[in-house]
Design a protein that fits this description.
The chain is α+β, with helices and mostly antiparallel strands and 135 residues long. Helix content is 23%, strand content 24%. A hairpin with a 2-residue loop joins strand 2 and strand 3. Helix 1 crosses helix 2.
């Protein structure tokens, strides 16, 4: 699947059922059994970018940003069937292009993706703190 035509959309409202399907197909851990919560997660984010193949949502990114200083890349998911095609890289590139070079892009990586991000110019941060969610 190395040469497929993918289209991208910025801030297109996404059907939460499609989001759940991509989350499940990507391997990312999100509350996919809670449709109302997924709907809330995508109801008013500052920046979403979606990747489409022949009308089917195959990848997405969701970021919270002030467009001035900081952008938290909260979700990056690509359907496993489409992984390795550069979609994740393009979602990040478009996020960075949209927020500009004065804005830091910050993310928390899933354990299985730790080796992915350094190849995309992310540096590991040893000065981060987190209060983990309870559910």
């Amino acid at each position: 699947m190395s040469h497929i035509e993918i289209t991208y959309q910025h801030n297109l409202p996404l059907d939460p059922r499609d989001v759940i399907r991509v989350f499940q197909a990507s391997g990312i851990t999100r509350p996919v059994n809670d449709l109302p919560r997924i709907a809330r997660m995508f109801a008013a984010p500052a920046l979403t970018i979606s990747a489409w193949h022949e009308g089917r949502l195959v990848g997405l990114s969701r970021s919270l940003t002030d467009y001035a200083y900081c952008c938290y890349l909260s979700d990056l998911a690509v359907d496993r069937e489409y992984q390795g095609c550069g979609i994740g890289k393009e979602l990040i590139r478009r996020t960075r292009e949209t927020v500009g070079d004065e804005v830091s892009v910050v993310l928390l990586s899933a354990p299985g993706a730790m080796s992915y991000y350094p190849a995309l110019d992310f540096a590991a941060a040893d000065n981060a703190f987190i209060i983990k969610r309870k559910r």
